[in-house]
Each structure stands twice: as C-alpha cells, then as structure tokens.
C-alpha cells in the first residue's frame, strides 16, 4: 500500500494578514476560516488545502498525504514501520482539527513533518468560488499540486519517500544554476500528476523552494501573471517545463518561498520510463529573483 495523493500543505508564516490578501486576490484561493493566527484556504470541493499559521519560520510546516480507507492507512503505517520509520497515530483532536477520519504522522530524514490521512472533508454544499474569478484548480485524483523540498541528504529523502511512502521516480533534471553549481532535481509521483514532490539539495535557502497550483484555463495563468508583474513580484517568467510540459510562472509569496502557477501539464502514463534532462524548461522560466 502506498500513498495516493497530496491532500494538504501547511506553511508557517510571519504575516498571516499578508497571506490572506495575497492568497485571495493574487492566487484566487477561497478562505474557509481565518483568525489573526491562522487561515485556511480552499481550491476545490475539499474543506481546505492550505493551512497558513503564524510563526517565525516563513517556510514549510507540514505535508498531508492521503490514502483511501482506514485499512489502507493501517497498511501504510505497517509499511513505514517496517522501513524503520517511527509513526505516531494522530489524536482525535488532531483528526478533528484536520477534518479527517484518521491520520498518522512521521518525519522525513530532514525532519519535515509528514501526515497521512484518510476521510478528508468534502464541502459540496458550499461550492468553491474563487474571489479572483479563477475558473478552477486541477485537483481530484491528482491531489493538491506539487511542492519542492530542499533537503540536506537527497538519497536519504529518496529512500524515505520512495521505499517508505511509496512514491515513484518520474525523472531527473540536472539544473545548471550557474557556472559553479548544477543541482540534481528528483521528481516523484504518486498518481497521474507528473510530480507531487521534487527533492533537491541546494546550499542555503529555505526548506520549501516552491509549491505549485495548477489551474484549469491558460487565461487563469495570464491573469495571475499580470497581477504579479504589476507588483514586481515575478520570480521566474512564463515558461514551459521540459519534464511535465507545464506552462507556468513563479511568483513571490509573502514568506520568501515561491508559488508556481501553472496549466497544461502532461500526466505520467503506464510503463513510464525514467529519463533525465539538462534543462528545467523548453522555453522561458527566466529567474529574476529568489532562484
Ligand atoms: C524547477 C522545476 C522543473 C521542472 C518542473 C517543475 O515543476 C519545476 O518546479
Ligand atoms: Fe514546480
């Protein structure tokens, strides 16, 4: 048994109010709940997908993967423990807070918190309506989107996420950042989405390089691009990736890591073969800041 999809992400941020304005007006996310210390955002029929909580880190806080049943969760717990991973059963209070029927948690070799749940809350009776008119986000069986973690020991992380959690390697990109530094990126999938998680070891920088949301219309990307450009908040220009063929740009969030806003990715298919690339983009994605 392995995980099925990414259900939610948690960020720890110093300015919750800035995130409320950013996520609604620029990204078009819908608020489920908000206080001075925490806001939760919706992108589809699920009760929430992003948990943004007050703290000094301005970085990744937790990931939440999902399986499809209580039995699957028990089987995954066994698989992780057999792989030497210490797994904690989530308390009823935590399950209630996350709005799930059950969950377990563990940490990856870099100390990043990983939750695995089943029974997330659907709010079909409160349809998702984007405050910025975004037509919709591509989720469903492909889960929330993707995120890229900067880890000190990539092989230990690959062992955890592949042999422990059950993700699969999609491909590798050797990204030449400059004449002195080429970084190897590993892209992992757990459903049709080309990658749900990418891993790399980049000197310095935050744990979270970026998270990605995929919209259902190219114009949604364009409208958001105009907003980020108007604020001088473009991190990388519009471009198309070599591996998942997504058309996207990267924008700055209030916390210093980036958000990738994309459309039109291809899915991994049956009999997928792992290949490597020397470039992250077919065209575009000129990094202006952050990098
Ligand atoms: C850097 C990078 C390369 C390929 C696909 C991605 O989504 C990405 O962020
Ligand atoms: Fe990405």
Protein architecture, described:
The chain starts with a strand and ends in a 7-residue tail after the last strand. The longest helix is centred in the first third of the chain and has 13 residues, at 70-82. Strands 17-10-11-12-9-13-16-15-14-18 form a ten-stranded mixed beta sheet. The protein contains five helices and 18 strands. The chain has 291 residues and is α+β, with helices and mostly antiparallel strands. The protein has helices at 16-26, 70-82, 92-98, 154-164, 218-230, and strands spanning 5-13, 30-34, 38-42, 50-54, 59-66, 88-89, 102-107, 113-118, 146-150, 168-178, 181-189, 197-200, 208-214, 234-241, 247-252, 258-263, 275-277, 281-284. The radius of gyration is 18 Å and the shape is globular. Fe (ii) ion binds at residues 146, 148, 210, 212, 260. Fe (ii) ion is lined by residues 146, 148, 210, 212, 260.
Bound molecules: 3-methylcatechol, fe (ii) ion
What is the H/E order? Answer: EHEEEEHEHEEEHEEEEHEEEEE
How would the global form be characterised?
globular
**Portion in strands:** 35-45%
What are the low-pLDDT stretches, counting only 5+ consecutive residues below 50? none
What helical percentage do the residues reach? 10-25%
**Quaternary structure state of the chains depicted:** single chain
Report the strand count. 18
Q: Mean of the pLDDT scores?
A: 97
Radius of gyration: 18 Å
Distance between the termini: 36 Å
Largest sheet: 10 strands, mixed
Helix/strand-derived class? alpha+beta
Physical arrangement of strands within the biggest beta sheet = 17-10-11-12-9-13-16-15-14-18
Q: What's the tally of helices?
A: 5
């Amino acid at each position: 048994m392995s995980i099925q999809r990414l259900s939610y992400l948690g960020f720890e941020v110093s300015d919750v109010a800035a995130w409320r304005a950013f996520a609604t007006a620029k990204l078009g996310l819908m608020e489920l709940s908000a206080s001075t210390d925490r806001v939760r955002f919706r992108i589809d029929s699920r009760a929430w997908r992003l948990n943004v909580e007050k703290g000094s880190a301005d970085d990744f806080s937790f990931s939440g993967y999902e399986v499809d049943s209580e039995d699957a969760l028990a089987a995954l717990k066994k698989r992780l423990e057999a792989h030497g991973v210490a797994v904690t059963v989530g308390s009823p209070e935590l399950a209630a807070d996350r709005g799930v029927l059950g969950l377990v948690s563990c940490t990856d070799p870099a100390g990043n918190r990983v939750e695995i749940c089943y029974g997330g809350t659907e709010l079909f009776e409160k349809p998702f309506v984007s405050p910025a008119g975004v037509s919709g986000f591509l989720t469903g069986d492909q889960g929330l989107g993707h995120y890229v973690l900067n880890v000190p020991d990539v092989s230990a992380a690959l062992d955890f996420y592949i042999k422990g959690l059950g993700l699969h390697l999609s491909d590798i990109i050797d990204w030449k950042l400059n004449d002195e530094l080429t970084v190897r990126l590993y892209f992992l999938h757990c459903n049709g989405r080309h990658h749900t998680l990418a891993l790399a070891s980049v000197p310095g920088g935050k744990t979270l390089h970026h998270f990605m949301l995929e919209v259902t219309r190219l114009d949604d990307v364009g409208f958001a691009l105009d907003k980020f450009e108007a604020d001088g908040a473009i991190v990388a220009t519009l471009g198309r990736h070599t591996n998942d063929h997504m058309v996207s740009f990267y924008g700055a969030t209030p916390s210093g890591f980036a958000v990738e806003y994309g459309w039109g990715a291809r899915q991994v298919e049956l009999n997928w073969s792992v290949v490597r690339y020397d470039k992250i983009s077919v065209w575009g994605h000129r990094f202006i800041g952050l990098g």
